Structures are given as structure tokens and as C-alpha cells.
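Input/output pair, single chain:
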Amino acid sequence: MRRTASAYPAGDGPAATDTHLGATIRRLLPYLWQYKWRVLLALSCLIGAKVANVSVPLVFKEVIDDLGGKQQLLVLPALLLLLYGALRFSASLFAELREILFARVTQRAVRRIALDVFRHLHELSLRFHLERQTGGVSRDIERGSRSISSLISYTLYSILPTLVEISIVLTILLLRYDIALALITVASLSAYVIFTVAVSNWRITLRRNLNETDSAANTRAIDSLLNYETVKYFNNEDYEARRYDQQMQLWEDAATRSQVSLSWLNLGQQGIIALGVTAMMWRAASGVVDGSMTIGDLVLVNAFLIQLYMPLNFLGVVYREIRQALADIERMFDLLAVNREVADSPDAVNLAARAVAVRFAAVDFAYDANRQILYGVDFSLPAGRTVAVVGESGSGKSTLARLLYRFYDVGGGAIQMNGTDLRQLTQASLRAAIGIVPQDTVLFNDSIYYNIQYGNPRASREEVLAAAAAAQLTTFIDQLPLGYETRVGERGLKLSGGEKQRVAIARALLKNPPVLIFDEATSALDSKTEKAIQASLDSAARGRTTLVIAHRLSTIMNADEILVMDSGRIIERGTHQHLLEAAGVYAHMWTLQQLEETAGPRDDGMPQ
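Output:
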């Protein structure tokens, strides 16, 4: 089942039907079957442990009967006691061997699935990541990864051993005693299982509601914390706390209903167990009285019951956890099923690492059917040249950069690099050829050095320092107590807007790509720093194919061509001087900006 990004908001997943659960199990098995020999050996150890476990009461029965006999031969009970100890140790030995053999299988499966989901999320379109709720998605991945271990643990260490033991015990009861004991055992176990499954299935809905309220609360908390500054700006701490508490109240109610229903489940299970044990012991005691069974047989039946009902006592919990684990794993697999939207074509080729020419050929684009952004945008960006794009907010300037990166596919027309449609190029080679300084710079919560080196993780320290110097960062960094090892905080919040933008410039310079995109690259800089960095940007752009998206016209005066956009269309184009002489929209924008700078130059380091 393929899903679009909008079809799967976090915290609102599909119902975990049996069909879905079966599909989930089928998707999980290949990850486990990669180590089939370990799996088979672990299952052999499981059977060995249960055979040894069931043999213990049999040997203990013989010890009881021999000690109660008239001859009381001490040699035979001693041997039986040694066998009794050996069997008990064997049961533990086989159980631990099973754990040792299966440990790698479980952890490797968790690792591979988590990695597959992580890679897939990075391969999804920008549309998915703009619509997703980070808290809900992260919680789904966390629960799904944890549930793989839980599912394997409960299945291999609870359900399968119990089924093996029940089969062995029923066989012994049928072969050694009358059929009544086996029938009582089957009847009580069947009643227990039917009751547990029926009630647990009802509780699945309650549990799913609990999970959804939990994800929603987590999403609300993370969203609020990510927007910490906005909360402070508007003095809305109490408002955010109330919103979070409203969601937590829903979680509290769901958790309470889930816990109360669990108590009713446990009470019903204990009632069935009590009836089954009473009937079995009544039948065994009657056999001892009429001489058809010995005291050892009575002890044997009691031991069998204890061994069977101890694991069954947790069947409700185990069944619920298995169903819930499958539901959680399904939600994680649902992320893998989200349509990538932008994917490499089967015959995609790599973009050659050389000078790149770009062509927008009559490009139409809409984020959705009701929101057309670009209308027939047509221009060329020759190799080694600079084209600037200006226009009011919402005119479609930044959309050009997103399309060039192929975060989205065009709705009409085509974008070409060296004559090849972007859709026929591999995304990896395409994006390797482009460096960008975005308008809204978001940094990793790590050191300044890490954030600069992120542009080229293989770069040497000398190259990183050179990029920082070119971006006019050296003086600022030298003033910091920890220098390049200074951590920038969540999303770079410890740095000013101008400092973050300079880090972004250094990062792009370090990547050293044939194509550069400057998306309002100096919008957060003061006039003095802007002039210093503009020289670095001009130097970096020399010989490269450069697309400059600008607000301040003074930064793009030397562009080979300037495009003026309005409402998704190119309405003017030409050089700076040509557009001024045309006395159109560009000339009007230039005049207004010159008046603003004359009235009071901006030097506060904040964006306009």
C-alpha cells in the first residue's frame, strides 16, 4: 500500500487490522531470516530447554514414588536426584544458549530496519518534511524499533516455548493417564486463550488511542520547544503549558481506561486458572484415593499445571504486547511505504563533474492544485555566468532554487543541466554539483567547526579554516573561548542571524561545487559585513554557474543578467544598466532602496 505524505500525519495511523499485521510480519521476516542458521539453532535450543523442563517433573515423580516405596533403595533415588539436577541445569543451559544465538539476530534486525527508515525519510520529498510532525514521526520510529525487540522476545521466549511445552505435556497426559486429565487441560487452556484474545482485541483500541494521544502530546511539546523564541516573544508560556496539558489530559484519560481494562482482564484470567487447577487436582486426588495414581503422579500433575499456567498467566500481557508491537512496527513500516514522490528514474545518469549550464524551459509549477506558483518561466543560466532574480515576496524566487535542487518536480516544461532534463539525472550527482546559501540558515546542534565542515566532511582542517576566513568568520571565532569548538545550540540559536549566515556561506564555499545558489545570502548581515562578504561571494562565484536570489539590488549590480519576477512570471530581464534605462519595475525598486539607504543605512545585523 503506497501512501502520500499527506495521507499519513503522525499520530493518526491506520487501524492495525489482521491483514495489516500479517503484512507487517511478512515484511519483518526477511530481516530475521538473513541469519537462518542462528534462528534454526536457537529454535533447537528452545525445544531442548522445554524437553528438559518437562522431564524434571517426571524424574521428580519417580523420586517421590521410590522414596515412598517399601524397599527405599537409596542408590536409585540418588541417581534420579542427580538426573533431576542435570535436567534443571540443562533447561537453563539451553535457554541461555538460545539467548546467545538470537541476540545478534534481534539487534541486527533492529539496526537494519531503523537504518532503512532513516534513509527513506531523507529520500522523501520536501513536501513530506514540510507537512510532517517531527515529534510524532520520531516517536513512531522509537516505538517501532523498540517493538521489534519486544516482538521477538515475546514470541521466541514466551509464546513458542509455551506451545512446545503444552504439546509435550498433553502427549504425556494422554499416554500415561486417562483422557480426562488431558481434556480438562485442553478445556481450561482453550477457555483461557479465547477469553484473553477476545478481551485483548478489545483493549487494542484503547491502547492505540493511548499511543495516539501520547504521540500528539509529544508532537505538541517538541513543536513548542523548537519555537522557544517565538513563545518568549509573545509571552505565551502559560498558553503553551495549557495546550500541552489539554493533550496530556486526553492521554491521562486514555491511560486510565487502558489500566482499568487490564485489571478486568487479569481478574478473568485468574478465575479460569483457578477453575482449571481445581478440576485437575480433584481428578488427580481421586486417582490417588482409588489407587489408579500414586502420590508421585499427584505431584507430577501439579508440577505440570504450575509449569503451564505460570507462562499462561502472562498470556494477556504477552498477547497484548505482541499485537501492540506489531501495530507499532506497522506504523514504522508505514513510513517506508510513504511515496517518495521525487525518485530517480531507472535509466538516470550521473551529471558530469564539470562546468554546468542550466536552462529553465517554460516551467510551470504548483505546490498543490489550488496554488500555482510559476507560469512559463523561461531563462538560461550559461556555464560560468551569474543570473540574479529579484521580485516581491511570494513572486516565486525561492521556488526556483527548490526546483533546481529537485526537491519537487516541475508541473510543466523542464529544467535542464547541460541539456539533460533533471528528471534523467541521479539526485545524488545533481545535488553534489550545487552549493547553496539559504535565506533561513538552520545549523546542527554541534560545533562551529562541524557545521562548516558539513559542506565537505572529507575536507582537511586547513580547508575548513580557509572557508571560514573567506566568509569573514575568523575574527568572530577567535573571540570565542572555545573557538571553532563552540557549540551553536539547537538550530544555531546561540548565534546571531548574521553569524549563522556566514557559517552557511563558509559551508557552501567548502563544498566547492560548479553551481552556486545564493538565496538572500546576505540578508542577515549589516552593511559593513555585507560589503566584506560580497567580495568573497563574487570571488566564489567567479568561473561558476551562479543563481542569485536577492532582495537588495546593490548586491546583484554586476550580474550577467537580472530577472524581475512578479506573481510567478518573469516581467523584465536585462543587465542592471539596461533595466534602469527601461524605467520599469526594477528601476522603481532601485529608486526606493536608494531612498531607504539614504534615510538610514541598516547596521544592526538583523534581516530586513
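The longest strand covers residues 358-368. The CA atoms of residues 332 and 559 lie 48 Å apart.
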